[in-house]
Amino acid sequence: MKGAKMKRDLGRRDFLGVAGAAMVGGTAVAADRSAGSGEATVVKILGISCSPRKGKTTATAVREALDAAKKVDSRIETELIDLGGYEIAGWSGGATPAGGVERRDDFDSLLPKLRDGGVGGWIIGSPVYFRNMSALCKAFLERCAVLRSPRLLLADKAVGVLAVGAFRNGGQELVIDQIQNALLCHEMMVVGGKPKAHQGATLWNFAKDDIGKDELGMDTARKLGVRVAEAALRLAR
Question: Is residue 57 classed exposed, middle or buried when 0-12, 13-18 and 19+ CB atoms within 10 A define those classes?
Fold first, then answer.
């Protein structure tokens, strides 16, 4: 009798243990399903075209990368900021301008978007001018110094870079490197693209501003967009 009672007690404990495990497992599965059901936070990716020529090849390439990024996951939202036509002066290094009046320009209108905590990544592009980034791109990056104080607002956000040149090997990778180096000062997470766009997207404007004809280059832009989106989602967790 005593042995039979012990067996019944052990059987009951085993059942409760299995049932408890099933409940925990069910809760975990439900949580996983909830996380993948679209209830997660939206992750925004900004595309920034730093060409003085509004709506031209650099903007088109950045938009192509953004379109590819958006297809990665329903949580991804994108926005293109085309700096063509913007007046942005370089960083003054904290010096007081002549007359003691602080100069204000078009950069100030960008600050709300750049400071948006919902932004999880950037895709930034520049044309190649004399194997360097554009003056507009340099000025924009310098003015982003305000995003480092009182805290690093861009830290741990993904960033990918693209460049458009007049030749296939016209300095695109040099420009990508220059921009990446600047953004490392913000502790951004620099990523390249999928193979074969490991450093970033490199495009060749050989068809009189019809950048879509550079099929190889446009493919690198799409691969960059996908990689930035994937990294932004992982970092957002």
Answer: buried
